[in-house]
Amino acid sequence: MRASATIRGSMNTPLTTLADWLAHCERLHPKNIDMGLDRVREVARRMDLRFECPVITVAGTNGKGSTCAMLEAVALQAGYRPGVYTSPHLVHFEERCRIHGEIVAADDLVPHFEAVEAARTGGDEAVSLTYFEFTTLAILRLMSQARLDVAILEVGLGGRLDATNVVDADCAVITSIDIDHVEFLGPDRESIGREKAGIMRPGRPVVVSDPVPPESVIRHAREIGADLWRFGEDFNFSGDKQQWSWAGRGRRYAGLAYPALRGANQLMNASGALAALEALRDRLPITAQSVRTGLAMVELPGRFQIVPGQPTLVLDVAHNPHSVAALTANLDAMGFFPTTHAVFGAMADKDLAPMLAKVGPLIDRWYFTDLPTPRAETGAGLQQKWNALQIVSGGRRQVATSVHADPVQALQAAVDAAEPTDRIVVFGSFYTVGGVLHDGTPRLQAKHLGA
After folding, report:
1. Cα-Cα-Cα-Cα dihedral of 266, 217, 89, 450, to 10°?
2. Which one-letter DSSP state was computed for residue 437?
3. Would 234 disulfide with which of 112, 173, 229, 398, CB 3.0-4.6 Å?
4. Same domain as 437, residue 338
5. Looking at 248, 272, 297, which one is the last position of a domain?
6. In terms of residue numbers, what domain contains 329?
């Protein structure tokens, strides 16, 4: 008999499906985020959680998901069996874990949730875990038993106290660092960098792909004796309109096609991924052809994703000033569109004014939306912030705005108003893009594609 037949939730109902377990995890802890590793480390110890393969941990403010996807794509082309853990998901929870390039099945996750619960409650006293901590441990256990050649772990928040940091990484990657989650990580880049640097390990490589990293990151690497790979010193890239090249310690890749992920910032992410693979070359050798093919085939939904059809539809999970600045540059590089419509929903704790101000000059019509989470700003609140920004800046350009109950209705309104030659961009949160992909895309695509 499966253990799930005897494990019951707070309402005394059996926990047999992934949905049951996720609901259970939501009820276990009063906080969504509870910084600290002691509780997670204790449950991991009880489970005897360990990896036999090389582990790459990726932290940073932006570019983590893209870097993980590139590492995975190159490893797949090299004939390896990679496992990837990322968060959050866009549509389905199972998206958080991929094994050998495939999203895991919901049923395959259930035994590992059972194992976490047994370990959590099986000691001298039960250990309280947040939703993120519980689900992370379940996925890590699945990956540890999946006969992987390499495990790639995306850090959820910060680094030093993130649940993924219970695993001692063989190589750490730190992508771009900017101000975000200040209530947990600190008010400036130096404080945030110090938290990100917590994923480093003495004597092991750490790849820093931020071209201007906080001094706290460099200082911590030197203090603990990590093998620091720094962009501009230990690896670099160059390129023109046709192709690009990468050079690291004793290795060079020339004549590379641009990564399949769009956006100029992706070269920085690709450079960090290649540096990490080079740092693990003795344990994970990679051929030049694997690099070329992997980067040419990499996919990651919601990162400057352009959906074919008319009007042009752009999906991007940009959700802080730094990533919105990158989105703005990428939109600007797309060329001329008569009208750009923006579907925007975001968390209330984000620095919203700089986000709106940065992309604002490119937007001709806003569709502000509510999101299905208490953390979100309301669509009406976003509209008010935009109007206040217009008053302060003395904006003379007339920009129409509207408010909608969810991303699907907002996108439907944008599609209805747009001409075939226009552009629609959906951004601001994983909830915004995920809401469109989950509920709206099939219904809207018929009109979007002119069917």
Report:
1. -20
2. I
3. 229
4. yes
5. 297
6. 305-442
One domain, residues 350 and 292 = no
Alpha-carbon span 174 to 226, nearest angstrom:
13
In a domain, 448, yes or no: no
| pTM (two decimals) | 0.88
For a pLDDT cut of 90, what percent of the chain falls above it? Answer: 75
**Torsion angle (degrees, nearest 10) of CA 213, 214, 217, 222:** 90
